[in-house]
Design goal:
It is a single chain. The chain has a 4-stranded antiparallel β-sheet with strand order 1-2-3-4, covered by helices on one side. Strands 5-6 form a two-stranded antiparallel sheet. The protein has a single domain (23-141), classed as Nuclear Transport Factor 2, Chain: A. With 165 residues, it is an alpha+beta fold. It has helices at residues 2-20, 26-38, 42-46, 51-64, 69-75; strands at 80-88, 91-98, 108-113, 116-119, 131-133, 139-141. It has 5 helices and 6 strands; from the N terminus they run αααααββββββ. 35% of the residues lie in helices and 20% in strands.
């Protein structure tokens, strides 16, 4: 009887170990990171992030802590659907949709560091356009950033009409 229980324990432990270590592909890392990100679990997202991305997650934590509970609850319902993964050496790009709008989102970039895939996310990734440096070190983007959602207003882009004098 002891042998059966010991064998079962070894099998279960091995199975758990294999499942928990199966986050070695860019797709698995992206799915987990995006779910953590959209659910506003930034501490969990940091575990799958580059150092720069961890800093961005810390900043986001401060901004989203003031959001109403209704917005946080809605965010926790978002489901991520990975559409494609393109690997190129130590870099990967993941395209995905979210259940809240079903539109393809800006691609998520991953890098392989120390044999682990990590998300490389920057402020330029918020806007859905390529981030570019303008020569003075400042980053500019092709699209205006999306304003954060509130309980009363959905996420929208700011009015980009020219000012009238």
């Amino acid at each position: 009887m002891k042998k059966i229980i010991l064998s079962l324990a070894v099998i279960l432990t091995s199975g758990f170990f294999l499942i928990s270590c199966n986050k070695s592909s860019p797709k698995d890392v992206a799915k987990e990171w995006l779910t953590d990100f959209y659910h506003q679990d930034y501490d969990a997202a940091k575990k799958l992030s580059t150092e720069d991305t961890k800093n961005m997650m810390t900043t986001l934590q401060g901004f989203t802590s003031a959001l109403p509970d209704s917005v946080k609850l809605k965010a926790k319902a978002v489901i991520i659907n990975i559409k494609s993964v393109k690997e190129d050496g130590n870099n990967a790009t993941v395209t995905f949709t979210t259940s809240d709008d079903n539109k393809e989102q800006p691609p998520l970039k991953l890098v392989k560091q120390n044999d682990k895939w990590l998300v490389q996310f920057s402020k330029g990734d918020f806007v859905g356009g390529e981030a570019k440096e303008n020569g003075s070190g400042a980053t500019i983007t092709q699209e205006a950033p999306v304003a954060p959602a509130t309980a009363d207003a959905p996420m929208t882009k700011p009015d980009t009409a020219p000012l009238q004098h």
